[in-house]
Each structure stands twice: as structure tokens, then as C-alpha cells.
Amino acid sequence: MKTKHKIIYKNAQNMSQIPSESIDLIITSPPYPMVKMWDETFIGLNKKIGEKLINDDGLRSFELMHKELDTVWKESFRVLKKGAFICINIGDATRSLKENFGLYPNHSRITQKLLEIGFTTLPEIIWRKLTNAPNKFMGSGMLPAGAYVTLEHEFILIGRKGGKREFIKEDDKKLRRESSFFWEERNIFFSDIWFDIHGARQKMFNNGSRKRSGAFPFEIPYRLINMYSLKGDTVLDPFIGTGTTMLAAMTACRNSFGFEIDKNIENQFNINDELIELLNSIIEKRIQDHINFVDSYQKDFKHKNIRYNFPVKTKQETDIFVNTIKSIREGETSVKVQYND
Hints:
Layout: E1 2-8, E2 23-28, H1 39-45, H2 47-54, H3 58-79, E3 80-90, E4 93-97, E5 100-104, H4 106-117, E6 120-128, E7 138-139, E8 147-148, E9 153-160, H5 170-178, H6 183-189, E10 193-194, H7 209-213, H8 219-228, E11 234-237, H9 244-251, E12 255-259, H10 273-296, E13 303-304, E14 311-312, E15 325-330, E16 335-339
Parallel strand pairs: 1-12, 2-3, 2-11, 6-10, 11-12
Antiparallel strand pairs: 1-16, 3-9, 4-5, 6-9, 7-8, 13-14, 15-16
Helix pairs in contact: 1-2, 2-3, 3-4, 8-9
């Protein structure tokens, strides 16, 4: 099996080169409106945003920033196939303007826009980002009516284009069974609070590029890809950044596209034997984690996986097969990955 991966260095607001209803899944983490590290990016798209920020007009700045993102969500709806999903990692923002500290609810603004565009919105996931730093609290310490709750979570918004995806052809049904996840993975993946995901796998990336991009941890797109797509599907990230979603797609045996407006984030990751070894270690860990689950489970298993010959909890897991990577080859315009069958 082979997959192809490509980054397009242009604004994701213009996805005209992507045919309508050609993408199986969108996973992205856009610039967060009203977070200072993204001010320059938004001002580059609309100079009025800079004027509003200078005048401490928070609400208008917030809305103008989101209007820039709205165009991407509209294009996302166009390029997605019927029944396909969009997953957006976004955090709310807090900011002081005119000495007035307040919250800017990015997740609710995007959710409302998805509904207006025509997406069916589904239960969201709260990514709990715990920190034990003693100085994390904002405000006047122990004095009443002067401190503020610290944001220690982000959201993963989930939308679907239309009704459920249909699998009519027998080949599609077979591929769906091979792409299944384990019973114990299901119980973690489909919880509405994720508190087991911490840092990113820094070894995957060149130093410096991740700091400029604010990328999310590898485990988030990797988990979402396994939840909402099949092997061989095409995953799009309109804000690819350092390429985290692309690496996750490679690992999960999916094709991928990405848009990136900042050309300074080129050469996101090093394609070499060390990368292949690292990605394969993630693949192998999925299998080992299941073996560990089997060893620790106190009840009998009624089913067995036909490829690995180990016990599984349900009949739907009997065809699971996780392809390891055989080679990664970088071409002039894309990266091609070949897998062990």
C-alpha cells in the first residue's frame, strides 16, 4: 500500500485547486483569534484588525479575525465528501484591553459558523491541559473579586457534512474492518474529555519551527484520523504548520494535503531512517498496548484477530491490521510512503 502527502504554501482561503467532495477528513488547529502570537498573521490578512487592536476594540477585532477563518470553513464544507468529518482544535482566549480583562470564546463562535454553513455539529471533546505551575493563576491572588479562573483546556470541535458515511462496496467494507480500533481504544477515544495527552513528540520536528507554529501534539490528529477515516483516505489540514497532521496521516496509512501561509515553516520534519523508526515505534506501540490490555484483562475473550492471532474483545476487531512503514521518499512536490502489507 502507498500514500502521498503534499504541502501547498498558500492561503487556505483559496482551495480552488481541490475538487469539490474529494476529501475524506479535515483535521486542523487554526490560529487562535485574540491570542497575541497570532495578531501579526491576522493583521496580514486584514489591516483593519490592527487598527481595531490599537484602539482596544476587542469585540470588533475578535469578529474580524473570525471572518478570516469563516472563509476556510466554507471551503472546507465544499471539499469534504458527504458524510465526512471536520475536527477543529481551538482554544478560547483571554486578553486585557483598556485595562479590562475578558474571555473571547473562539470555540462557540466557530461552532455557530459551522452550523450556518450546513455542518451537523456533534459532541465536542475537551482536551484537558493540566499544569501545576504555582504562578498559573491570574488576578490578585487570594483576594476575593479580583482573581480569574485559569484556562487549562482546549476544544476539539467535530462536524459532519450531512448524514452518516455509507459503505456499499465490499472492498470498502473490508477496508473499514481493517481500519477498526481496539475496544479499549474506543473507550478512550470517544470520551468527551481527553486528559491523557500531554506534550508533542519533539524529535519529529526541526528545532524552532514548532515554536513559531504553536502546533498541537501528534497524538491528537493521530487519534482523530483513526476515529474518523479509513486507510487510504485523504486527510486535509488547512493550517498545516509544522506538519503534525501530515505525520499522523503517514503513520495511520492515509494520504494528506496541507496548506501553510508562512513559508518560513518549510522543512518541518526530517525525512530519514530515524523518522521511519520513530513512526513505526508508534504503530508498534498500538499493538503492544493491546497485548498489555489482554494480559491485564480479567475476563475471557470470545474472539481472535486473524492477522495477529491475539485475543480481541469484539468481532469487529478480528480484521484489524496496522501497516508499518517500509519507506518514505521525498520528491519535488510531494512525499510518498510505502507500507508493509
